[in-house]
Predict the 3D structure of the following.
Amino acid sequence: KNEVEQSPQNLTAQEGEFITINCSYSVGISALHWLQQHPGGGIVSLFMLSSGKKKHGRLIATINIQEKHSSLHITASHPRDSAVYICAVWPGNQFYFGTGTSLTVIP
Amino acid sequence: SQTIHQWPATLVQPVGSPLSLECTVEGTSNPNLYWYRQAAGRGLQLLFYSVGIGQISSEVPQNLSASRPQDRQFILSSKKLLLSDSGFYLCAGTFRGGPYEQYFGPGTRLTVT
């Protein structure tokens, strides 16, 4: 049983489309992270959330603590957004990670 | 600000060779540090965590070991690599400045040939 589930596993979009990636978790948490991993590259932290909503440029992350659910949105998607997006939660003792969503944005 | 450094970024090693991956922390002290591994097609799994110098807890028995020789240094090692050790290794940390002090290193991609 995975503590963190992400959907979809794979996503292909046309440039300019609005994208949503979902993360559901089964444990009580104090923080949730969205991470980005480019092909062959390292991890980059995009957001840390404990409640509500955060926005950085074209990226928006939301979290609903009661429903144990978070979403990452990308507006006006671009080919450079192609990467694996990973949800990670912190219940207080260790991080639990989703398996990632592989996003490909086609020009 | 706090930063976690990892090196090397990529590594190709033959089967049976030793391994040493280093994680260092900048900008704070007394962090809890974690080593995770991501095998192909799977999520990141906890390997080791450390709450202080010389204190290591192992989550999954494997061909690897970890050490914490200094407060800001966390090392992942192997005496003899196996093909199954290939994967992406991530160092993460939590800093005791509050509940929001959590950081990730960039990771190391290891290929065992």
In short: Chain A is about 0% helix and 60% strand. The longest strand of chain A covers residues 83-90. The interface with chain B takes residues 2, 4, 30-31, 33, 35, 37, 40-45, 48, 50, 86, 88, 90, 94-95, 97-100 of chain A (CB under 8 Å).
